[in-house]
Amino acid sequence: MKILLTGCHGQIGWELVRSLLPLGELICITRAQADFTKLHELRELIQKHRPKVIVNAAAYTAVDKAEQESGRAFLINAEAPLILAEEAKKIGALFIHYSTDYVFDGTKASPYDEDDTPHPLNVYGQSKLAGEQAIQALSTDYLILRTSWVYAARGRNFLKTILRLAAEREELSIVADQIGAPTWARLIADTTAHVLRQSMLDRQLCRFHSSIYHLTTVGSTSWHGFSSRIIDLARQYGNTDLKSRILTPILTTDYPLPAKRPANSRLSVDRLEKRFGLYMPTWEGALELCMQELMGDNPKS
Ligand SMILES: NC(=O)c1ccc[n+]([C@@H]2O[C@H](COP(=O)([O-])OP(=O)(O)OC[C@H]3O[C@@H](n4cnc5c(N)ncnc54)[C@H](OP(=O)(O)O)[C@@H]3O)[C@@H](O)[C@H]2O)c1
Q: What is the mean pLDDT of residues 175-179?
């Protein structure tokens, strides 16, 4: 089975390279090989390789910058995925695409289901929703995997930022009124591999159904709670250089950013677990595994 993966140098893409390797011949595409702002190159790429599966982990992910670059965000997050999905349809390939909790406005009191009505608060969320809708309208074979609060041992992300700031400052002020499920990129990649394999079997048996699935850890916390746990685990795994002793919880309004964020980013994973017989771990459990990798595996206590 030939699998074409885009965004190979991103957080999720990097982990996908490892998770998808045993499933077939993997063609890894970086921005240098295919720039999503050059749509004709994308068509040529798919026609050249004619894969059985396309996994699109490339995206415009600069949430605040997107407020000033909406044209570029929509080009990369909506127009380019549409081209990939069109090409997938032409060659009968399965198209796997990632989306985000930021398609919702966060006003729901409980975790969002896949069928809840999206209402993005920012340009990034709007561009990702436009990508989802373009793929769905094509009626090709697709899986859209919405995830949230992605971190990894590699790449630029909240976890790495907190570790850097905690080494520099004695006190940190962190937003405590946005809640969600921090999700390790490796878990997303490994789950994608399971879902891909099962979906290809289902296609052979003519029982595949295109759908959106929520793919996150279970449980939830705030950015403040996430930061506290990161710093505790870093100390537990031997990082004695961290200066931060005080983590002050603040409101979103105390830390204004160009893009609005949803207060509730929780996504229900029931559909994914039931459909694929999976059991998603807690955010705390996954974070501990990632921290073990990042800090070494010798806890002090
Ligand atoms: N990060 C999160 O918290 C989060 C949350 C929910 C959903 N998601 C979704 O998850 C997916 C993967 O996110 P991620 O966190 O892995 O993102 P990431 O680390 O920012 O990686 C994005 C990848 O897209 C590539 N890319 C950006 N612009 C491109 C262009 N013009 N042409 C080709 N490639 C381009 C980047 O290439 P370079 O390496 O060259 O920069 C990078 O490899 C995305 O669909 C995102 O919307 C992410």
A: 97
Active-site annotation holder among 124, 142, 151, 213? 124
Q: How far is the CA of 10 from the centre of ligand 1 (A)?
A: 5
| pLDDT at residue 139, rounded to an integer | 85
CATH number for the domain that contains residue 23:
3.40.50.720
Whether residue 237 is contained in a domain is answered as: no
Q: How far is the CA of 7 from the centre of ligand 1 (A)?
A: 6
Closest CA to 293 of 156, 152, 182, 183: 152
| Residue 164: inside a domain | no
Domain around 190: 2-157+182-217+266-278
Residues in the chain: 301
In a domain, 287, yes or no: no
What distance in angstroms lies between residue 152's CA and the mean position of ligand 1's atoms? 13
- Return mean pLDDT, the chain: 95
98 is catalytic: no
Q: What are the tens digits of pLDDT across the range 52-73?
A: 999 999 999 999 999 999 999 9
Pocket test for ligand 1, best of 5, 8, 12 (most atoms within 8 A of CB): 12
Chain segment 202-251, per-residue pLDDT in tens:
999 999 999 999 999 999 999 999 999 999 999 888 877 788 788 899 99
**CA-146 nearest atom, ligand 1:** 7
Q: Minimal CA–CA distance to 271: which of 223, 190, 205, 211?
A: 211
Domain count for the chain, please give it: 1
Residues 6+ apart with CB under 8 A from 185: 11, 12, 14, 15, 150, 151, 152, 155
Give the whole-angstrom CA distance, residue 216 versus residue 187: 8
Asked if the structure places residue 292 within a domain, the reply is no
Pocket test for ligand 1, best of 36, 129, 150 (most atoms within 8 A of CB): 150
